[in-house]
Give the backbone structure.
Amino acid sequence: MIRVRQVEIEALTFSQYDNGVSEIVYHESTERAVNGFFHFVNMVIKETPPSQTIYLLSDLTQTGHLPLRDHYAKIAKLNTHYHPDERPNARFANIYPAVTLKQKLILEFMRSLDMPNVALDMFAAEERNRAIAWLLSV
Protein backbone atom coordinates (compact mmCIF):
# COMPACT_ATOMS: atom_id res chain seq x y z
CA MET A 1 0.00 0.00 0.00
CA ILE A 2 1.27 3.44 -0.90
CA ARG A 3 0.15 6.33 1.31
CA VAL A 4 -1.48 9.06 -0.79
CA ARG A 5 -2.73 11.34 2.01
CA GLN A 6 -1.96 11.81 5.68
CA VAL A 7 -3.25 14.15 8.39
CA GLU A 8 -1.88 14.12 11.93
CA ILE A 9 -3.44 15.59 15.03
CA GLU A 10 -2.34 14.95 18.61
CA ALA A 11 -4.87 12.22 19.25
CA LEU A 12 -4.56 10.27 15.99
CA THR A 13 -3.13 9.97 12.50
CA PHE A 14 -5.40 9.60 9.48
CA SER A 15 -3.99 8.10 6.25
CA GLN A 16 -5.41 7.07 2.90
CA TYR A 17 -3.74 4.54 0.61
CA ASP A 18 -3.73 3.86 -3.11
CA ASN A 19 -5.81 0.68 -2.69
CA GLY A 20 -8.77 2.64 -1.24
CA VAL A 21 -8.12 1.82 2.43
CA SER A 22 -8.30 4.65 4.95
CA GLU A 23 -6.55 4.14 8.28
CA ILE A 24 -6.80 5.82 11.64
CA VAL A 25 -4.01 5.17 14.15
CA TYR A 26 -5.02 6.22 17.66
CA HIS A 27 -2.35 7.78 19.88
CA GLU A 28 -4.63 8.27 22.88
CA SER A 29 -7.94 6.98 24.22
CA THR A 30 -9.77 10.25 24.77
CA GLU A 31 -12.88 12.12 23.72
CA ARG A 32 -10.58 14.16 21.47
CA ALA A 33 -9.59 10.95 19.66
CA VAL A 34 -13.25 9.97 19.22
CA ASN A 35 -14.03 13.43 17.86
CA GLY A 36 -11.12 13.12 15.42
CA PHE A 37 -12.34 9.69 14.32
CA PHE A 38 -15.79 11.03 13.48
CA HIS A 39 -14.39 14.10 11.77
CA PHE A 40 -12.38 11.86 9.42
CA VAL A 41 -15.20 9.31 8.93
CA ASN A 42 -17.57 12.15 8.05
CA MET A 43 -14.99 13.53 5.60
CA VAL A 44 -14.59 10.12 3.93
CA ILE A 45 -18.38 9.67 3.69
CA LYS A 46 -18.71 13.05 1.97
CA GLU A 47 -15.88 12.21 -0.46
CA THR A 48 -17.19 8.72 -1.35
CA PRO A 49 -20.11 8.29 -3.77
CA PRO A 50 -23.03 6.23 -2.38
CA SER A 51 -22.36 3.53 -5.00
CA GLN A 52 -18.90 2.82 -3.55
CA THR A 53 -17.60 1.32 -0.29
CA ILE A 54 -15.51 2.87 2.48
CA TYR A 55 -12.71 0.65 3.79
CA LEU A 56 -11.52 1.83 7.21
CA LEU A 57 -8.78 0.28 9.29
CA SER A 58 -8.73 1.51 12.91
CA ASP A 59 -5.43 0.79 14.64
CA LEU A 60 -5.96 0.70 18.40
CA THR A 61 -2.69 -1.07 19.23
CA GLN A 62 -1.33 1.96 21.14
CA THR A 63 -4.49 2.57 23.17
CA GLY A 64 -6.28 -0.78 23.38
CA HIS A 65 -9.70 0.89 23.35
CA LEU A 66 -11.69 4.12 22.94
CA PRO A 67 -14.01 5.78 25.47
CA LEU A 68 -17.12 3.69 24.78
CA ARG A 69 -19.79 6.17 25.88
CA ASP A 70 -18.41 8.93 23.63
CA HIS A 71 -17.85 6.50 20.76
CA TYR A 72 -21.40 5.08 20.79
CA ALA A 73 -22.97 8.53 21.10
CA LYS A 74 -21.05 9.69 18.02
CA ILE A 75 -21.95 6.54 16.08
CA ALA A 76 -25.64 7.09 16.81
CA LYS A 77 -25.38 10.72 15.71
CA LEU A 78 -23.50 9.84 12.53
CA ASN A 79 -25.93 7.00 11.76
CA THR A 80 -28.93 9.36 11.87
CA HIS A 81 -27.14 12.16 9.98
CA TYR A 82 -27.06 10.24 6.69
CA HIS A 83 -29.93 8.34 5.10
CA PRO A 84 -28.75 4.79 4.26
CA ASP A 85 -29.42 5.39 0.54
CA GLU A 86 -27.30 8.55 0.57
CA ARG A 87 -24.12 7.14 2.06
CA PRO A 88 -21.65 4.54 0.83
CA ASN A 89 -21.42 1.04 2.21
CA ALA A 90 -18.70 0.68 4.83
CA ARG A 91 -16.35 -1.98 6.09
CA PHE A 92 -14.58 -1.28 9.40
CA ALA A 93 -11.72 -3.41 10.73
CA ASN A 94 -10.33 -2.67 14.19
CA ILE A 95 -6.85 -3.82 15.16
CA TYR A 96 -6.15 -4.38 18.87
CA PRO A 97 -3.01 -5.45 20.74
CA ALA A 98 -4.91 -8.71 21.36
CA VAL A 99 -8.53 -9.69 20.84
CA THR A 100 -10.10 -10.22 24.26
CA LEU A 101 -13.52 -11.37 25.38
CA LYS A 102 -14.39 -7.75 26.20
CA GLN A 103 -13.59 -6.66 22.65
CA LYS A 104 -15.56 -9.57 21.20
CA LEU A 105 -18.59 -8.50 23.26
CA ILE A 106 -18.19 -4.91 22.07
CA LEU A 107 -18.03 -6.12 18.46
CA GLU A 108 -21.25 -8.10 18.88
CA PHE A 109 -22.93 -5.07 20.46
CA MET A 110 -21.78 -2.87 17.56
CA ARG A 111 -23.09 -5.41 15.06
CA SER A 112 -26.47 -5.34 16.81
CA LEU A 113 -26.88 -1.60 16.18
CA ASP A 114 -29.05 -0.50 13.30
CA MET A 115 -26.34 0.35 10.77
CA PRO A 116 -27.45 -0.73 7.30
CA ASN A 117 -24.70 -1.67 4.84
CA VAL A 118 -21.96 -1.58 7.50
CA ALA A 119 -19.70 -4.58 8.14
CA LEU A 120 -17.47 -4.77 11.24
CA ASP A 121 -14.69 -7.08 12.32
CA MET A 122 -11.66 -7.07 14.61
CA PHE A 123 -8.17 -8.47 14.47
CA ALA A 124 -5.12 -8.82 16.69
CA ALA A 125 -2.07 -6.66 15.91
CA GLU A 126 -0.21 -9.48 14.20
CA GLU A 127 -3.19 -9.98 11.84
CA ARG A 128 -2.91 -6.57 10.13
CA ASN A 129 -2.52 -8.09 6.64
CA ARG A 130 -5.52 -10.34 7.25
CA ALA A 131 -7.55 -7.28 8.34
CA ILE A 132 -6.67 -5.46 5.12
CA ALA A 133 -7.55 -8.53 3.05
CA TRP A 134 -10.92 -8.75 4.89
CA LEU A 135 -11.62 -5.07 4.20
CA LEU A 136 -11.03 -5.49 0.49
CA SER A 137 -12.72 -8.89 0.16
CA VAL A 138 -15.98 -7.58 -1.22
Summary: The mean pLDDT is 86. The chain is about 35% helix and 30% strand.
